[in-house]
Amino acid sequence: MEENGVHVNQDWILPLNDINADMAFSATIKLFSNHEQPDAIFAVSDVLATGAIRAVNYVGKNVPKDVVVVGFDNIALSTMMIPSITTVNQPSFQMGYLANEFLFEKLQNPLTETKRMLLDTELIIRESSSV
Question: What is the pTM of this model?
Fold first, then answer.
């Protein structure tokens, strides 16, 4: 974000100990109790995005008109929420397949160099980010 000239307010980065919608709800309520409030939330999972959406509604704001919410995972829950959650889809099958392949190689030859691979993702635009 900073590389693109977007200021990152460090107070808006809320680390949570668990992927838990109730924790996300509480953290988002706390976030909106500050004087300076975000107009967008990116959650590291769709489960956390559900908690954020509930909290945004609780404080009297509207998703997506006042606050855009984006999740990550593209789990089924993201289509069941109202509003449905804009999310990042990961290639889950490909990730599992490659992880298994890399692990099998490592078991066959422990001296094999550890591999890293960057896989494509896809932004799935839904109601939580479109007005």
Answer: 0.84
